Please model this.
Amino acid sequence: MATYQLVKGRKTPWRALVRVVGFPAKTRSFATKTQAKAWAKPLELRLQSQKRKRSSNYTLPLIP
Model:
C-alpha cells in the first residue's frame, strides 16, 4: 500500500512510502505529490506481482 506524506520545511516536501507484506518498506521524497504517485504506483504493482509469483511456487499437501 502506498501512502503520501507532506513534510514541511524540506526541499522535497512529498514523501512516498510503499509497504507490501513480505518486502521491506521503500521510501522516496519528491517535489510534488504527482511525482510521488508516479513512482509509488508501479513499484507497488511490481512488488505485489512478485509476491503472487512467490506464493504460487508453494503447494499444500493433500489431507486424506
